[in-house]
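Bit of a strange request maybe. I'm writing a small parser for structure token strings and I need a real example to test against, not something I typed by hand. Could someone generate the tokens for this chain?
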Amino acid sequence: MTYRSWFRTWLTNPRLGIHLVLLTLLLGAPSLWLGWQLDDYVHRASLVGVDQFPDASRAWWNLFGFLDGDPVVNQALIERGALPWWSSPTLRLAFFRPVAGLTHWLDYQLWPNTPALMHLQSLFWYAAVVLGMTRLFRSTASVAFAAGIAALVFAIDDSHGMPLVWLANRNSVVALLFTTISLLSHIRWRRDGSHRHAWLSAVALLLALLSAEGAIATCAYVVSYALFIERGAVSKRARSLLPATAVTALWLVAYKILGYGASGSGMYVDPLTNPLRYLGAAVERAPLLLWGQWAWPPSDVHQLVSAPAGRLMWAVTVVFAAGLAYVLYPLLRRNRVARFWAVGMLLSLPPVCATFASHRLLMFVGIGGAGLLGEFLAEWQGKCEGGKRPLLSLSRLAVFGLIVVHMFLAPLGLLGASHAMKNFGVLSDGAVRSLPSDESIAGQDVFIVQIPAAFLAGSGPLVLAMDGRPVPRRLVTLGSSIFPIEIERPTASTLIFRPEGGFLPPSGGPHPGEAKDHPVFHPLYVHTQFDHLFRDVGEPFTVGRRINLSGLTAHVTELTPDHRPAEVRFDFDHPLEDSRYRCVRWSAGVFVPFDLPAVGAKTVVRMKPSKPIR
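Reply from user aminoacidic:
Good idea to test on real output. This should exercise your parser:
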């Protein structure tokens, strides 16, 4: 038996789903040693409780309701440093995901101090997804071989890495499982006329939406199925959309009435309240996301390059999308299953364009991507076996590239997801844990004069408290930038900050890396966008704006041309040498003491990149 015939036999084996589960469990196994990272500490504090922060506790059904937009609550969080001083007073970051929250509640009821078992639960959810998706592809594919390719490609897709290994992102995996059940039930209903499966599809869709907002992409595949797979009159096919439409509409109305959603943040664009801005964001992000689904490297690389390189990368992704459409067009013209997957994939893109392009957002887009790729490669193989190998060189190049990306590079990316997540987590947790652990810090205000992004320090006190270490009275970020910050000290109790390019550097175009002396690629570029998590560009600053905190006032004294703070004066109630204060800066991934300039002097703080983590 040749390798090709063995591979074909394996992909059409009735037990393929079980084999793929074992493969993905092996690739995801390193997550068992990953522990808690980033938002995991917030969830842990919410469900277990932290004595020093009683307000951190949150019910499981509201586990992802981080900020409800209450100005009083936000001000209290700014006071203690959990939010940076530039945060919008009405910042809202609240997501209704009670089903996902319930899975975390079970973790902390059964094994609260054993993160390995929490990760094992995530692996089991993903195993169920792989089994369900294998069945879904087999129920829709034109040939069994196409279904096998699609199931394999989907199971080992590296875009699933972060949702699989990061506990706080488990919601996407849970939602994906219920989406799979909903689609399988919908297909069964439409084929057999079983109303029981119609109800099951609707309930599964509701559970998916109550797990993660991205599950709204389920409707994309329901619509595409009615367009290209289902037969009959238009009115009959339109009626098939009613259950999914009703469930989604009711969920959306309840979501808004209950006050959930994101507003006041520059990282999210609401298409309902700001359609023009959303349209511009979609034009920028959709080609990047399509590139991430079909090609390599992941779309996240766009966040690591300078502005000129970012514009060039966007242009490359547009050309790639056009080339991909050209290669796939003959298949799409004659294969209705391929059209079903292609349109479902494209209709899944708009929801994820509401935030910056990231590889981890492609789980629902990847359903259609894997199905379409399976149809394409199966047809190619059939032509090869029939002696009708296409002569078009672009098609041959596409086949080779797609096989390399999706069958060789993708599993390596999935295997390395835990390592990548640990590296990112250590940037935050490692820095906070480098703070002094002497008891005196519990009575001090610790001021961070420079850090790549305030996001990295926001949950720091929670981490220290759960470690059983002394917690600063408050941990406040003053300067956040990856570029040099000039700090002047006109009086003993005053500091003036002038970051190169200003505070909140734009994350669009132009963005960091615009200057000629900035490198084309730098891993710290990605952090600049996180400062916009706390404030929307639609809330410009004004000269003279004062942010009053207990014992500290931030005074905006100069603006950039686009109305961002260019210079900010911080006035303290006491001289900075007072024992109640401690100043630190970020250096090579840890906090080190900041040497205050003499009164009347200036200093420039430059970013020192973090050391590689092994």
